[in-house]
Every structure is written in structure tokens, then in C-alpha cells.
Amino acid sequence: MNVNRLSTELIDRELGVWLRDESDTRAPAGLVEDVFARTSRMPQARRWWPPVRAARSTGARPWLVGGRPARAAWPRVSAVAGITALLVIGVVLVLGTPRFGPGPGATAPPSVNPSASPSPSLAGPSLPPPPSAGPTVIGGLAAIGIPLGTDAAPIDVTAAFDAIWVANIHAGDVRAYDGATAAEVARIPLGSASWFGITDDGLWVTSQNGTGITRIDPVTKTLAEHVGEVPPCGAPVLALGSLWQAACDGNVFLRIDPETHRQLPSISAQGHGFLVAAGGRLITTGTEGLAVVDPETKTVTSIGGRAAQGAEFIASDGTTVWVKNQNGMARLDPTDGSVIAAFPYLAAQAVTFSGDHAWMTVTGQGVLEIDLATNQVRRTIPVLPSPLVAREAGGALWVTDFEQSQLWRIDL
Amino acid sequence: MRAMAGDHDAFAALANANVDRMYALARVIVRDADRAEDATQEALVRAWRELPRLREPAKFQAWLRRLLVNACYDEGRRIRSRSEVVLLADHHPSIADESAGVIDRDRLDRAFRRLPLEQRVVTVLSHVEGLTHEEIAETLGIPLGTVKSRVRYALAGLRSALEADDRTPAVESRRRAGGTGRGA
User: Which of B47, B1, B45, B40 lies closest to B21 in space, CA to CA?
Assistant: First the structure.
């Protein structure tokens, strides 16, 4: 039987059976005993917020909002803890009163080493609440943390129609914020929201957990048209007179008339994935690397570029294509797929562009500003722990934190 | 809860209750018994250290799974940093038993080993743990779209590897023979 005759479904099914059989095994004897021996004198990590008794001793019980009471077995509250709490109160009072109760270290994010090697380890254990909400300072810049609520899970953030828009995939809504005050001005429920596209008269948002793409009327801030009945993947792209949306599961590229808001005939994706516009062409990714989509002939022609194989996301600064895969981020020439620059950040999450620079988010490191002329990192703003999308608008950098359900405004 | 408060015996009981499942997962992800043992042990040690920071005890299993996956990533990185080469098992030219309609498991194994660790992880969490794509995204702390793309690329990669395996000349099969092992 030749493999070419095997369907993807069959491969998937056989893989499942094989993996389940392979996992039918037991741990070697003594493994837990080894762990027990290693941990017998190993202290446990401290919480990032103060234990109850320390807070009580300072009269700062409201701080425990978002925290939880300490247990009797918690390491004894020492004088050092009390002094630390007092010092933190002082710092908080000097720098401004937060809207939510931060614990020690709240006025500055956890320290990071900007030169630390990129790590593929996306995230560690479940983390406590963000160390700061409300006014704070990040990397020497004034910032405001905006909690979005438990499990909101924000993905994209964009600036359009005099507002900042955030798509929350788990909360299933789009929220609009006043860029100056960071106050929420609208909340639009739509089931699932992930990535934005902007046209003259609409903010389009994909429903990654559902199907298609929905236009939000930016004037009334209400839902308008919904287009497409297949699950989308990646962000919508305005190019060549149409709004395009890749739909990987449906193996098609959706095409929408941005004026009538109606769906036009789709183009077969021919096994390709995400879309982006670069150099006046519509570019996609596939197993062979980059490919160009021709709407006239409805063909997808390979460009090549090994650095684009296995793409997890793509973006464009208008002329070049940025691709993240298992080897990190690469900046490619869309004419031949050649690598212009490589950024070995295995935990890179997204990249956006503004003027002469790019903003790349990297889990565990923060937001990196990259000079588009030299491809050098100008600075790292330690937005931690899990920045997803950073978008510059109105003199500020807006950053979503997917895991912590947080939106940041950082004054540049 | 007692383990979170520093009760070492309670932690040992937790570890005993979960170690087989953790090891089994690590074994299929890293495809090596020794490294699976190392990853499991490392994940449990981290669990002990980080337990007080676990905010939602109800999500302990998902949290532990995530620690294990991260430990597997670390094992993979350690391999790469040593320029280590995983030698493949003996080559069998026939990929499928036509009568049974199933893919030969040795070839499936070889194809699976060629997948990037990130793609192996999502397929294992899906097939072995029975997690939905949404649950995998939550477990790994990555967007749903990334999970879907990794699943898709994993299947495409498997197909490519199986096709490549189908075309592998006999001389390579001899070169690669000798079972699974570690390089320098």
C-alpha cells in the first residue's frame, strides 16, 4: 500500500491508536523516591503576594483582593516580611494608588535579563495575578494595567476609529477603550473574537472558535454583517481591493467586498495557511514556504523559503514578510523567500509595525523594539509574563497579555 | 492543599498518584525512556517548588501537565544544544499492511520522531489525553490558532515523512540501522 493513497484522516486515526498503545506504560520504580529525596530539603517558592498576617500587621488587608489567605503551615511570617510590606506600601503611596491591590513588587514588574537567551518554553506554572494593575512603571515607562477579568484571554489589539479595540477569545467579546483615559467605552459580545482587520467603514474581527468574520460598525459599536461559515485562521488582510481571510480548516481563502460587505467567490487555499499583503501581492504560507496568491487566475504559486516552512504566524511591514516557526522569527524577501534577518526568539508570539520599527512580543522577555533599517533590537520593554500582541498608537504601546487576561497601556 | 502548604508527605502521595501518567506522556513525547524519566522527575521537582503559587487547585492536573510539557521542551533543548542526533530504528521498506489497512508502526514511529517537539506535544495531548484544541491551548498557554496550525503541520509532516521513508534507498536503511541511541 503506497503512502500516497493514505488519507490524512487515516494517518490521524492510526497515529492516535499508536500513541495510545505507546502510552500504556508505567514509570520506572524509584522515580518518586528520587523526587522525594531531591525535594526533601528544597524550600517551596514564595507567593508573590503577602501572607495574611503580614498584611494584617500593616493594616493593609484590602491588598488581598485577588490573593488568597495564607495557611497555617505557610512559613512563619518574619519581621523581614513585615518590613518588606511596609516598604512596598511606601513605594505604592509615592507612585500613586493602584485601583487593585498589588503585593510586593507591584510598582515594578518582575526583573528580567533583556539579554537572556530566547526560550522555547512558552510558560511556566500557573502564575499569580499580574504583579500590577492600575498605574505602574514598566522598564522606566509609565504604564497602566487594565484587568480584563478572569479568562478573558485577549488576543489582538488595534487602534482604529478613535478607539483602542481588544478581542477577547474566551470572554467572546470585543471591547473598545478610550486611548487617552484607558477607560472602557463599549463591549460587544459576539461569541468568539480573535484577530482584527480594518476597512474604511468597519472593524472586522475573526471568530477563531466559531466560523467566519464579523464586521463591527465603528459608529454604533454594534455587530453588523457576518461572513463565512468556515473557521478562520490568522488575521484578515485588506489587499488587492478585497478583504481576505484564510480559513485553514476549510482549505479556502475567503474574499469579501469591503464596500458591500458581501462575500465574493472563495479561492482554494490548496493546503496553504495564513495570509498577508507584502510588496503589492497577497502572500501565504505552506509546506514549501511562501507562496503568492493570484486572485485573477485563482492559483497559488510557490515562492519558496525554508524559513517560512511550518509557519505559526506571518506578518508584513508592507514590503517584507515576517514569519515565526519552530526556529524563531525570520524576516523574508517575498520575491524569493530569502532571509533578510533572523531573530532566534523561539517564544516570539507576534509582531506589529509602526514607522521605522517593529514591536515583537516574546513570552518571558517582553516587547522588543526592532529597528527596521538595521534589524537590531533597540530596547526591550519587560511586559511580563506573556505579552501576545503589541500595537503602537497615539504615543503609547498597547499590549495584550493572553494568559493573565490583561491589557497594558505603556506610554512611550 | 496540604502539599501546597509544605506537607512533603502529602506531596509524595500526589506524585505517586500521577507519576505513571506523567511518565507515559513524556515517553511518547520525547521518545526515549531515560529522557522521559528525567523530564518526569524535573516536572515533579518543579511542582513541589511551585505548588504554593498554584492559584486554582482545581486545575492541578492541567497545571502538572503543563509543567511536564515544559520539562519535555527543556529535554529537547538540551539535546539540540549538544548537537545530539537521534538515530532511527531499523528501516522497513513496507509502510502498510494492506490487508489490515494500517500503517506499519515502526514507520509511524520514525515519522513521528521527525516532527518538531511542539507538534508532537499537541498530537499527544489530543490523542493520549483526549484534550480538545481549546483545552490544549489553555494547557499550553498559547492561542487556539497556534494549536490548530501545529496539529495541521504535524499531520502534513507525518505524511511527508512517511512519503520520504517510502523513497529511502536501502543504503540509507543500513546506515541508519542500529536502533535508537544518542550521539555525542
Answer: B40
Angle at the Cα of A180 (from A178 to A185), degrees rounded to 5? Answer: 15
Q: List chain B residues with CB under 8 Å of A6.
A: 96, 103, 159, 162
Amino acid sitting at position B169: P
Nearest-neighbour CA in chain B from A349: distance (Å) = 9
CB B151 within 8 A of CB B123: yes
User: What is the distance between the alpha carbons of residues A39 and A16, in angstroms, rounded to a whole number?
Assistant: 35
**Contact status of B139 with chain A (Cβ, < 8 Å):** no
How far B24 CA lies from chain A's nearest CA (Å)? 5
pLDDT at residue A97, rounded to an integer: 30
Nearest to B108 among A18, A34, A326 (CB): A18
* Pairwise CA distance, residues B49 & B64, whole Å: 12
pLDDT tens profile A229-253: 888 888 999 999 999 999 887 889 9
Supply angle C-alpha A325, A329, A334, rounded to 5. 90
Which of these ranges, A46-50, A201-205, A318-322, has the smallest mean pLDDT?
A46-50
A322/A361 Cα distance (integer angstroms): 13
Count the neighbouring beta carbons within 10 Å of the beta carbon of residue A247.
Answer: 23
First to last CA, chain A: 61
In A176-203, which positions are buried (b, 16+ CB within 10 angstroms) versus exposed (e)?
A: bbebeebeeebebebebbbbbbbbeebb
CB–CB of B140 and A125 under 8 A?
A: no
Residues linked to residue A284 through DSSP beta bridges, in sequence order: A275, A291
Distance CA A345, CA A365 (A): 10
- pLDDT-derived band at A45 (thresholds 50, 70, 90) equals low
Here the ipTM equals 0.76
Percent of chain A with pLDDT over 90: 52
Residue listed under C-alpha cell 505552506: A286
In angstroms, the CA B17 to CA A32 distance is 10
Distance CA A258, CA A290 (A): 26
> Chain A contact for B173, CB < 8 A?
no
With beta carbons less than 8 A apart as the criterion, state whether A397 and A381 touch.
Answer: yes
Q: Which three cell numbers stand for residue A104?
A: 510586593
Helices vs. strands in chain A: H and E counts, helices first:
4, 29
B169 near A CB under 8 A: no
Q: For A198, how many CA atoms within 13 A lie in the half-sphere containing its CB?
A: 11
Q: What is the pLDDT of residue B105?
A: 82
- CA-CA-CA-CA torsion sign (A313, A148, A51, A104): positive
With 0-12 / 13-18 / 19 or more C-beta atoms within 10 angstroms meaning exposed / middle / buried, residue A158 is buried
- Average pLDDT of the segment spanning A7-28: 86
Q: Do B140 and A123 touch (CB under 8 A)?
A: yes
A125 contacts B67? CB cut-off 8 A = yes
